[in-house]
Amino acid sequence: MAKIIGAVGTSHIPAIGGAIHKGLQNEPYWQPFFGGFAPVQQWLGQEPPDVVVVFYNDHGLNFFLDKMPTFAVGAAPEYLSADEGWGIPAQPPVPGCQDLSWHLIEALTEREFDVVTCQEMLLDHAGTLPLKLLWPQGNGQGGWPVQVVPVCINTVQFPLPKPSRVYALGKAVGEAVAAWQSDKRVLFVGSGGLSHQLEGQRAGHINKRFDLQFLDSMVSNPEWATSYTNHELVELVGTQGVELLMWLAMRGALTAAGPSVREVHRNYHIPISNTATAVMALAT
Ligand code: DHB
Ligand code: FE
């Protein structure tokens, strides 16, 4: 059986890619953000996963407003990075894990999550930046040290899936991974959030109080945020802050490894660009 080693939640912002490209990680503006990843990288060095299931939102690259799946799962042999700009200009293709992709697609459909299957898929900053933040050196040979299975959740165009539905999707993914006939080690990643709003009169809106409560809930009360509607979440954390649904899916997936988790590390820093940033690593 596959082994679930833990989960990581992280913010994604295109400007992070630009900072990596320009080598600005130790500049005063960036250090409080990038410094938060060192303990997580160290943990992953001790507990290296083979495959990463990344819960993320596509920002208009694969799906635009004319066609918007609620849930989509990648089943490609590899995923090309094709960000919308501001990011890292060139990145190696990310290898897929088609065996796990199809296992998840079958298990999710059986559980009545009728996902869109994507045998071709491009990754934007929400898919690639977590990898670059967790493994800045890649595999040391110009590639990535892990395979990925992207699980895309619509947080871009209403109606969005309910928080409780997203948590249930995560649980179904976790249980499918736990039942996967494989000796591979699997990490879940939730990419997005925390509070931010990019447009309109409330551009720059941040809610530190809610963010910190949300981070606490990830450790000991993971269903806490499912008591909110998406409209309430948008009011609380901003139109793009609702990306915290990715963290809910990631945490739901982790429940398949047992009722309790160990917090390895967390970091919260305001702001990077318009966003309240966070990284949190949870071990099984
Ligand atoms: C920003 C944040 C995001 O989540 C995103 O997808 C794009 C931009 C920002 O704060 O600049
Ligand atoms: Fe985003």
From TrEMBL:
Q: Which UniProt keywords apply?
A: Dioxygenase, Oxidoreductase
One term of GO molecular function: dioxygenase activity
From which residue to which does the signal peptide run?
A: none
Has UniProt tagged this entry with the keyword tRNA processing?
no
Top-rank taxon: Bacteria
Ranges where the Extradiol ring-cleavage dioxygenase class III enzyme subunit B domain occurs: 7-276
Q: Which NCBIfam families does this entry report, sorted A to Z?
A: PRK13364.1, PRK13365.1
Please give the name of this protein: Class III extradiol dioxygenase family protein
